[in-house]
Amino acid sequence: MADEGQAPDDLTFTHQELDEKATEAIEAVLASKIYDEKEVSRWINEICERIIKSLYDTRKPFKYMVTCLIMQKTEAGLLSSGACMFEGGTDMMQQFLWPKEKAKDQANKTMHAVVTIFCARF
Fold this sequence. Notes:
GO terms for molecular function: dynein intermediate chain binding. By secondary structure, the chain is an alpha+beta fold.
């Protein structure tokens, strides 16, 4: 049974579930692509739409917000941060870097993607 202030497991997401949804969407859109500045905005929209649809299809009582950043791989650094204030027992925010830094077989050598997912219970 859930503690007071905690939602039952079937009404929340695990970090692993969110990671899987983000990874599936990013890989479906970017895995075979080479960085092309003209295509980036289309790719970002498609990634965000895929993630939102996947989250919405769960029919869990949340409002969702997804952001995506795609950057060409260069010697430049990339730093991203997020902060929010919400109900800790139900709401969540998670950020993903693709490809994973320690992946043995990196799916894409020309770009990075950073996706942030916010889930706020209503």
